[in-house]
Design a protein that fits this description.
- The complex is a heterodimer of chains A (205) and B (212).
- By secondary structure, chain A is an all-alpha fold.
- Chain A has two domains: 101 residues, Rna Polymerase Sigma Factor, Chain: A (Orthogonal Bundle), CATH 1.10.1740.10; 101 residues, Winged helix-like DNA-binding domain superfamily/Winged helix DNA-binding domain (Arc Repressor Mutant, subunit A, Orthogonal Bundle), CATH 1.10.10.
- Chain A contains nine helices and no strands.
- Classes of the chains: A mainly alpha (205), B alpha+beta (212).
């Protein structure tokens, strides 16, 4: 899953390797550093899937706890973040399956007030005028609302592709389905979003 | 789930840059003759760009310090729980064999093997105990069980033991059944009337001791 954003800098990767080795030896302070390095990404992933900050917080914690328990079996044949990402994804999807959350009608304005961390790769570049910043914020809210109304499968497909940048093959592996299903989910998810955001496309905010 | 048409598959493959250069050129060439497809492609591209721009890959964790400290606390608790579980498992395993060291059975490990057999009894249809099997750690010794239903007695014959010192007091029980309590690591022996014959547990040094 090379496209899952891991530490691509060799120095950063080596730091991960060192921290993982220390963690595997039982060094909880080393693991604490790994938590600090990746908590924002993992939390973003769980949040995008469950659309609830409290649940996302708990699920992100659960992912790190499961990772700690599974660390003795981690062979470092993949990047730590890739491995952690899969654990977090499985934890969240298991939770979603249990809760059987449906996309329709679950949107809550209170849950969509997050902002991108400065410097993150998705943070819009450049400076906005106040007027443009407000418009961008409005569009962001509309997108949040539309995403929240998608089914879990469709939301997951959009997230894996647009945020994590996974290839279709990688998505199929993570989602446990065929390539054809991946493309179908992506297509219909985008069609639904397109419909929900049609007015913002035709009359840009 | 409905299956999108080949054309729609092409559309998202184009959008996600999953086409070869040749496929991409061919797909875009169709736009000249199919303005509807061109408009759809443009609309999808607009949407994809907005999604990428507005969905953060990182979100600061609320109460980040607490997030980390909670994880550390849970890990510490797990270590304690695991250690307790290991100790309980060891105690449970040990309690199964503590009979081998009971002083009231003449202090001879071989003698205690009979108790092992006794503990593993089941009530037969007659209401009497049936010893299912015996085990002798020392192969030079032999255990034989003789049951007498009328006398409500069970005799264990152990061959190959050293003579039991005269000062040792040997007490015989007719054990009907036994129950082990893993939580407090004790085993209780009952007679046929349900009365408690003996309770055995490990002391603080891990040595077996009679509680009753």
């Amino acid at each position: 899953m090379s496209a899952a954003p891991a530490a691509t800098d060799p120095v950063e990767q080596q730091l991960d390797v060192d921290l993982v080795i220390r963690s595997q030896a039982g060094d909880t302070r080393a693991f604490d550093l790994l938590v600090t390095r990746y908590r924002s990404r993992i939390y973003a992933m769980t949040y995008h899937l469950v659309r609830n900050d409290t649940e996302a917080w708990d699920l992100a914690q659960e992912a790190f706890i499961k990772a700690w328990r599974a660390l003795p079996n981690f062979k470092q044949d993949a990047a730590f973040y890739t491995w952690l990402y899969r654990i977090a994804h499985n934890v969240t999807c298991d939770w979603l399956r249990k809760k059987k959350i449906q996309g329709d009608g679950e949107f809550d304005d209170e849950h969509t007030n997050h902002r991108a961390m400065p410097g993150s790769r998705t943070m819009p570049q450049g400076f906005d005028t106040p007027d443009r910043a407000i418009k961008r914020q409005e569009l962001g809210q509309r997108i949040d609302q539309a995403i929240a109304r998608l089914s879990v499968d469709h939301r997951q497909a959009v997230m894996l592709r647009e945020i994590e940048g996974l290839s279709y093959e990688e998505m199929a592996e993570v989602m446990g389905c065929s390539l054809g299903t991946v493309m179908s989910r992506l297509f219909y998810a985008r069609k639904k979003l397109q419909e929900m955001l049609k007015d913002t496309y035709e009359n840009p905010i | 789930m409905k299956t999108p048409s080949e054309e729609n598959h092409d559309l998202i493959r184009w959008l996600d840059d999953e086409m070869t250069v040749g496929e991409r050129r061919a797909f875009e060439a169709n736009w000249q003759s199919d303005p509807e497809l061109a408009a759809e492609a443009e609309s999808m591209r607009w949407l994809s760009e907005r999604l990428k721009a507005h969905l953060p890959a990182e979100i600061p964790v609320p109460h980040a310090d607490f997030f980390n400290s909670q994880i550390q606390a849970r890990i510490a608790q797990m270590e304690v729980d695991d250690a307790r579980e290991r100790a309980e498992t060891a105690a449970s395993t040990s309690s199964r064999f503590l009979w081998l060291r009971l002083p009231w059975l003449a202090g001879a490990a071989a003698a205690a093997l009979a108790i092992v057999g006794l503990v593993w009894t089941q009530s037969g249809s007659s209401g009497c105990s049936t010893i299912l099997s015996t085990y002798t750690p020392n192969p030079s010794m032999k255990a034989q069980v003789i049951e007498h239903v009328d006398a409500v007695a069970t005799v264990l014959l152990l061959e190959g033991l050293d003579p039991i010192p005269a000062e040792k007091k040997v007490v015989g029980f007719h054990v009907h059944h036994a129950e082990s309590d893993a939580e407090v690591a004790t085993t209780t022996l009952f007679d046929e009337n349900g009365a408690v014959l003996a309770v055995v547990a490990l002391n603080a040094q891990g040595q077996p001791q009679m509680l009753k």
